[in-house]
Amino acid sequence: MQLQFFTNPKIITKGFENLQLTNDSLIISNHLSINDLYYLDNILPENVLFAVYENEKKSLLNLNKNRKTFLYNPLNPQTLVELKNLIEGDTPVLIFPEVIAAPHRIVSRIYNEISDLIRRTNPTIFPICMSGGNISN
To answer: Is residue 88 within 8 Å of residue 24, measured between CB atoms?
Structure first.
C-alpha cells in the first residue's frame, strides 16, 4: 500500500470570477476524490451549502467550521424532500449528482432520484468540472 501526503495543494480555478450565485443556484460537480469537498470549500463562497451523501460524513471534518452542510441519502424519500426544500430555499447549494466519488477517476452514473429532483426544482445550474485530484478513494 502506498501512502500519499499533500500539503497546500495547488488549486487552479478557471471561470469562478464569473460565478454570480443567487438563492436558487444549484452548483453541480463531478466527484473524483475524497478531496473534492476540501478543494471546493476553499473556492466557493461561504454561503454555499454542501449537500453530501451521508456515507461521506467523514469528508466534512476538514471543512471550514462555518460551512453549512446537509447529509442525505438518495434512496431515502424523507431526506430527498429536505434536499428539495434546501434547493428551493434561500441559499445556493452544492451537490454531487454521482453521490459518491467515482472509482478510477471516471464519471459515475447520476442517480435517477437526484436528476428527478433537479428537474422538479428547476434551479439555476452552475456546473463545475473537477480534474486532476491526486488522491482517490
So the answer is: yes
Q: How many CA atoms lie within 13 A of 60 on its CB side?
A: 16
Determine if the pTM surpasses 0.70.
yes
Residue type, 25: S
Distance CA 132, CA 113 (A): 28
DSSP line for 45-94: -TT-EEEEEGGGGGGGGGS-TT--EEEE-TT-HHHHHHHHHHHTTTS-EE
The residue assigned the cell 500519499 is 4
| Residue 52 burial (C-beta neighbours within 10 Å; 0-12, 13-18, 19+) | buried
Tens of pLDDT, residue by residue over 9-40, are 555 666 667 778 888 889 888 777 777 888 88
